[in-house]
Predict the structure of Amidohydrolase family protein.
Amino acid sequence: MSADLVIRNARVVRHDGEFHGGVAVKDGKIVLTGADSALPKGHREIDAGGRVLMPGVIDPHCHLGVKYPYAEDMRTETAAAASGGVTTALLYIRNLKPSYLPFYEERKALGEENSIIDFGFHFGIQREEHIAEIPEIAAKTGVRSFKCYFGYEPDNPIGIVPATDGWVYAAMRILSKIPGALINVHCENTQIASWMKNEIKATGRQDLGAYTESRPAFCEVETIRRMIFLAERTGCSLHLVHTSVGMGPVLAAEAQARGVHVTVETCQHYLTRTAYDSDLDMRAKISPPLRDKEEQEGLWRGVMNGSVYSLGTDHVPFFPKKLEDLWSELPGVVSFPWELSLMLHFGVHQRGLPLSRLVQLNSANPARRFGLWPRKGNIEVGFDADLVLVDLDEERTVHHTGKGTCIYEGWKLKGWPVLTVSRGAVVYENGEIDESLFGRGRCLSRPS
Ligand SMILES: [Zn+2]
């Protein structure tokens, strides 16, 4: 047998352990894994030089096409993702029209024309009709992951239509009957946060901490509790996105112990930044907000002990921040190019996070959660050849040139992706994206 691509002499790390050797790839799939001596000749051969080879990162949380055109974002941002070792991006995406079906076809086609990596969707519930349409959407598009947004006031500048408890309950009731379906919830009690915002705004404060204190951790904890209650009541599977509070993983673990299907996502920024970092200002406004050291340590406990299930960036390329007023500034930062590096630096090097645990958080678990297993998320025969080669010792300084706001500028991080393979094609190496491969990415949501 000859292969298209063979990577050898690697420390191959999977969610369940590691071995020395490599992989052989043919027609975009992994056809063999094992010791170097067992691998066939490849049309292209890469000597990993003993570096770490992991499944490509599945980033299940980004927002593309919100402020910049969608087709453009599917080029610029998926390229940024590929440079960060990401081989699958799942988009939380919204449509205000009554049906999601035409929207899906349009976004799938435009995505496949432009993206350099594979992608998929979670649909935001933005009106009552979307709830009734869930079974049809699932059957005709394969999308089984839906999102309800708390945390936004009705007149928010992003144009998000906030959920009601009624919407969540009705959606959960329907989703609980569809195999593999789940609801994702942005958990923050906005009624309390709005009240507190008016109080703090009146003091004239413009520091980032004021924004955080206007929507304190307990607002998020309250909604997490309420969503877990509703998930338990309906039997719906619940995913808590961008969890910023240490109580999130604790409450989820308690609920899991009594049989509730609930999982926790957190983001790299909550693990590496606080609202009180002296170099941060309203540029670092995000939703939910950056918190403090105590919440951060709680999240790290969850990362280390397994009660945080997966990581997502909440990557959102907005226009440059205006820096005029904390309260009207748009929330959102970008993270694709550094998401893996941040975890290697702060997790693996600083806290001793096992690499196999990182693979669980970044690849195996999101694949399982969002219906991509056993196709994505593992280095095993039959899986798509989505791979990232990592140099654990490389030190490089973050310098952001793309869209959106970076909150790590100038940071020297240790551990970087050096080569990314998407379904067998080398999309990133030597610091460059292969621009001939735009439009190679495929939509992963398919009709059942
Ligand atoms: Zn988000």
Remarks:
- Residues 217-234 form the longest helix (18 residues).
- The chain has two domains: 3-52+383-403+413-433, 56-369.
- The radius of gyration is 21 Å.
